[in-house]
Amino acid sequence: MSELRQCARFADWQKVDETSDLKSIGLAPKPEAVLLLPMLAHSFQEQHEEQIRSLSSSGPGARETCLVNMPFHSRFEASETLYQSFNSTPVSEFMLNENYGRARLESSLHPFVCGLTHHSFTALEQKTRTQRLARALAGRLKWRPGEGSELDKVVATYTYNTIDVMTLNWAVHMLNGVSAPASSSFTVDDLVHQLEDSGAKVLFTCAPLLQSACQAATKAGMPLNSIFVFDLPVPYAGEHAFTTFEQLVTEGATLPPVPALSWEEGRGARQTAFLCYSSGTSGLPKGVRISHQNIIANVLQITEAETPERKAQGQGFQDVLLGLLPQSHIYMIAIFQAAVYRGDSVVVLPRYNLNQLLTSVGNFRVRTMPLVPPIIIDLVGKVSLAQKYDLSSVRKVITTAAPLAKDMAKRLCQLYPAWRLCQAYGLTETSAASWTTEDDIWLGSAGGLLPNVKCRLLTDDGDEVQGENQPGELLISTPAMSLGYHNNQKATEESYVTRGGERWFRTGDIAMFRSSSRDRQNLWIIDRVKELIKVKGLQVAPAELEALLLTHPAVRDCAVIATPDQRAGELPKAFVVLSEGQHNGQSVTEAIYRFVKSRQARHKWLEGGIEFVDTIPKNASGKILRRHLRDQEAAKRRASGSKL
């Protein structure tokens, strides 16, 4: 641990040079711009300081007693009433209305800037565009904000990143609808499943994905005139007459305003805002119902956790973030909205390209980069390329979605000593739950719990872990915890449980808490109970691949596990029992590999290999004992001298 703490000191505080002339796109520093936090949010720090004084006066044993008798808590002991005060507020109103504490629209940076074309809109322009888009959708779809269920107004997105995705989300919320983002890595069949399961009435896509979107829509029974095209990064100019996003905004300028939503108390806590699909271990992705209050709570949690470090930068500090990761992922949905709420700017790139990333950092003086481990590995591995670009503005890297190896984290800190490497932890079902603050970096840790997040750790016998440095299955309770799974009550009951009168989510991860050198509890994720495979941060359900493999005539039985990979983090590997009369060999291996490749998204290909075995280890009830297979693989790697 001392080695990790020493590594965390590689990056020292340095002030950001934000004097570049970027006024044309709203990225120049504006001394008059003051970040306006919610009036209620100011009580966070006051309450925290009061509780610290109370604990201090209770004697040295007070903190220990608190830990033993209660689940693990955030150090920001925020009041639950803060989140309850927004239980009747739509996300769109919260994000676009200064009365809810967001940064002043006039003094905010341009919320989203295209990293390729430099195109952007001011915060005021974005609000106007959102309202106009809502009018156009209401006119075309005959949707009225006060009528019908939100689940009758589901709008799916299947696109690379654009500066207009969040505008669409908020316009849908203005109409009392639901945004259902789909991963741009989805195959046609993946998208068909989401369209059918969500009941989406409309699909927004982009020109590069239009063909797949049309195929999926046709299979799902969605008319092609229900497909709209984002202008990414230039206007759509295809042969077919699809209506573009920009045409809708222009159309909405001529239409009457959409009536404002007026919700009764508690509706924001019950109503779905986003339907995000998360792969489980038992088959196809499940739709996670994330409420308006969940989103608002997570924005406030992230804002409060980062308030001290923002204050250290001086009054009027505004950040510039890199918007490279998929906007369909809850990670970016949360970070993007927290950034806009605080008046920051996000530089959006359609998809990952290292040269575009490096160019954009220099062009827009990007300070904060939310990344995932595979991109960090690429940065470290191609340092000679990176050194050709101006990365002097970067001060912070946030990584999540998959574990970052200690050696890789240390290497990044050595190569870029001015960068603060902060890790976070969360799930689609909970949004961000832990966050590393810049004053308490401990490489390998997922940081401290966000405000009002509580955790329990359970042993295999269901007993509660009472102290630090003891592993257990992680359960999370947070105001940002989702409502449950869409159309899947069984899965909801299995994963969302009540304990001690409170609602908790069973993460399936094995974790422990340790105190840092600043005597703050840090969350450490050390293993997974669930079998989910993460390839470059994308989820792969073993059961889905196994079900597919069993349809191949050469496969009698099979099991899929994760095998470590330096670049991807993990890769799926298949163990196959051949059907009678089949003989293992290169031709069969290639046939099975091609079979999966032709039917699954790239991150689900069997790049970890295919191994033929006589039997698949199972317990008495027939459940695959993946742990046995993983242990065998680990033994093989140790014998071969692999460091993975």
Protein described:
It is a single chain. The chain is an alpha/beta fold and 644 residues long. Among the domains are: 122-284, Rossmann fold, CATH 3.40.50; 533-640, GMP Synthetase, Chain A, domain 3. 33% of the residues lie in helices and 22% in strands. It has 21 helices and 27 strands. The strands form 7 sheets. Strands 1, 17, 18, 20, 21 and 22 form a 6-stranded antiparallel sheet that branches. Helix 6 crosses helix 7, helix 6 (123-141) packs across helix 10 and helix 8 packs across helix 9. The longest helix has 21 residues, at 292-312. The radius of gyration is 24 Å and the shape is globular. Residues 118-486 form the AMP-dependent synthetase/ligase domain. Belongs to the ATP-dependent AMP-binding enzyme family.
Strand and helix map with partners:
Layout lengths: L1 H7 L33 H16 L4 H8 L2 E2 L6 H5 L6 H6 L15 E3 L8 H19 L12 E5 L6 H10 L3 E5 L5 H11 L3 E5 L3 H11 L6 E4 L12 E2 H8 L14 H4 L1 E7 L7 E6 H21 L7 E4 L6 H12 L3 E4 L5 H11 L3 E4 L1 H9 L1 H4 L9 E4 L6 H10 L4 E8 L3 E5 L12 E2 L4 E5 L13 E6 L6 E2 L3 H7 E4 L2 E14 L5 E8 L4 E3 L2 E3 L1 H8 L5 E11 L3 E10 L7 H12 L12 E3 L13 H15 L4
Parallel strand pairs: 2-11, 3-4, 3-5, 5-6, 6-7, 10-11, 12-13, 13-14, 26-27
Antiparallel strand pairs: 1-17, 8-9, 9-19, 14-15, 15-16, 17-18, 18-21, 20-21, 21-22, 23-24, 25-26
Helix pairs in contact: 6-7, 6-10, 8-9, 12-13, 15-17
